[in-house]
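Hi R.,

As promised on Friday, here is the backbone we talked about, encoded as structure tokens. Could you run it through your design pipeline when you get a chance and send me back a sequence?
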């Protein structure tokens, strides 16, 4: 539910920000964020129940989890997936413009965001019914790679033009939950620390992916080539995931 709320917030927030920016400039968008933040803070203070909470795991506690090789490998898959999926998201506008001369990114952000909501809301049910979160991660990575590789083709087929973005959003947002299940199985006594480590790897991957995208474009890669590069990274993550599954089976 938390990931579902985040993905829904991304859908509504990005689009609302674009609308406000079109009428009041980016200053207006920043003021809107400030006002909404204050409203949320007041609502939490007034209505949120006072639930005793344990202190969050420190950075040292999170990094200590990496002493376990399987934890390190699993978090590494999350990191590479974050580089590819969230890093590529940063460049949606130049990718669309370079691929097909598209200037309005809003419909594609809708497709990506709606996919994110669907993926994050239904992945938990899928894990509960099927089990085997490691294999589910493998399936997610296959679909994510296919979505990225098919972006240029999809834009040229009107009936399919939004499908790659929907699948990309759905698989990107669904990728965290099965990884968390695996990590909790590996470190049941250190659940908060290992989940926090996984989330940190995801968003660190986002930052690295955004920076890496800029670097490779300065080096000569065009925006239209970024989906292919990101898809190749997902294949690297898939290969790593298959190695993890093979090692687990042998063990």
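Update: got your reply. Pasting your designed sequence below so it's all in one thread:
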């Amino acid at each position: 539910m938390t990931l579902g709320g985040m993905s829904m917030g991304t859908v509504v927030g990005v689009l609302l920000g674009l609308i406000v920016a079109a009428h009041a400039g980016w200053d207006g968008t920043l003021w809107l964020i400030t006002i909404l933040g204050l409203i949320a803070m007041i609502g939490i203070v007034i209505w949120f129940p006072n639930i005793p909470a344990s202190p969050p795991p420190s950075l040292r506690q999170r990094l200590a989890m990496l002493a376990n090789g399987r934890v390190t490998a699993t978090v590494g898959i999350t990191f590479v997936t974050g580089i590819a999926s969230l890093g590529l998201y940063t460049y949606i506008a130049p990718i669309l413009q370079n691929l097909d001369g598209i200037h309005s990114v809003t419909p594609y952000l809708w497709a990506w965001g709606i996919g994110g909501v669907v993926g994050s809301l239904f992945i938990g049910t899928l894990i509960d019914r099927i089990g085997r979160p490691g294999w589910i991660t493998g399936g997610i990575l296959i679909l994510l790679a296919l979505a990225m590789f098919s972006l240029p083709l999809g834009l040229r087929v009107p009936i399919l033009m939004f499908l790659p973005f929907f699948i990309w959003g759905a698989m990107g947002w669904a990728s965290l939950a099965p990884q968390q299940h695996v990590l909790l199985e590996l470190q049941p006594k250190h659940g908060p620390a290992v989940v926090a480590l996984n989330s940190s790897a995801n968003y660190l991957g986002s930052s690295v992916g955004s920076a890496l995208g800029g670097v490779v474009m300065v080096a000569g890669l065009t925006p239209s080539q970024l989906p292919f590069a990101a898809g190749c990274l997902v294949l690297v993550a898939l290969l790593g995931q298959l190695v993890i599954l093979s090692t687990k089976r042998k063990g």
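One thing I noticed while checking it: The chain has eleven helices and no strands.

Thanks again,
M.
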